[in-house]
Amino acid sequence: MAMLIIPSLAGIAYGHTVDSVGDYRVEIGWMNEPVVSGETNAIEFYVSPLIPCPEIEKAIKCAESQDFQNGVADLRKTIKMQLIFKDENITLPLSPDHNIPGKYYAFVNPTVSGFYQANVLGSIKDTPISLSMHPPKVAERSYIEFPKKEHEEIIEQHNTIQSKHDELEIRLNTVQSQYNNLESKIDSVEKKLEQEQQSDGFSGFDYASIAIAVTALALGVFAVRKSR
């Protein structure tokens, strides 16, 4: 059990990138892991003396073989961190950790997922530093969201459709009522027409009434069909 747990914990803890500059060991990583887009986070930056490794030729391998210790303080004013994502960049100031000398934070809110590049610029004491480092990938925020937002979107779409349906029903009922009123008026005109035929014939007013009624009925039928 111990053999299974310890390697997994080591893998999680080693979410940092290590390099060397002159006589110094530098290390970066995200403050909160797993890091996801849309959440305020910070890049942790560690600086400590590099202990010589005569048996290791490459300086970066020497730095990776060591742990952070005896951190170098008072670098807040001499080092800046430039964060790059594709063709955009931002320069972030460093905030020192008041409890751990040599540990600094560059606070940022990564808004999109992907790989970011961190350029460390300035000087460590008398040693210039211009180093490009790559913290772990920023994951999509949906990776840890529960329940998924798409459920809310589906519900919202359903409510919007239902609201439009209800509004259409109201309009359709209004047009149907107007159509019924027009039919009633047509019936009234037809009855009057029959009465006129049995008496003295049509008057100018009667012809105008019939024309208006027929036109209104046609418009009502068109409105009902369009609404449906």
Could you give the topology of this structure?
Blueprint: H1 2-13, E1 17-21, E2 24-30, E3 41-49, H2 59-64, E4 79-85, E5 88-92, E6 95-96, E7 103-108, E8 117-124, E9 127-133, H3 149-198, H4 204-227
Antiparallel strand pairs: 1-2, 2-3, 3-7, 4-5, 4-8, 6-7, 8-9
> CATH topology of the largest domain, anyone?
Immunoglobulin-like
- Measured by DSSP, the beta-strand proportion falls in 15-25%
CATH class of the largest domain: Mainly Beta
CATH architecture of the largest domain: Sandwich
CATH superfamily of the largest domain: Immunoglobulins
Distance between the termini: 69 Å
The rounded Rg comes to 39 Å
Total helical segments:
4
Question: Oligomeric status of the shown chains?
Answer: single chain
Mean pLDDT: 82
Find the structural class using helix and strand composition.
Answer: alpha+beta
Strand order of the largest sheet: 1-2-3-7-6
* Total count of domains: 2
Q: The biggest beta sheet, please?
A: 5 strands, antiparallel
Q: Helix content range of the residues, please?
A: 40-55%
- Count of distinct strands: 9
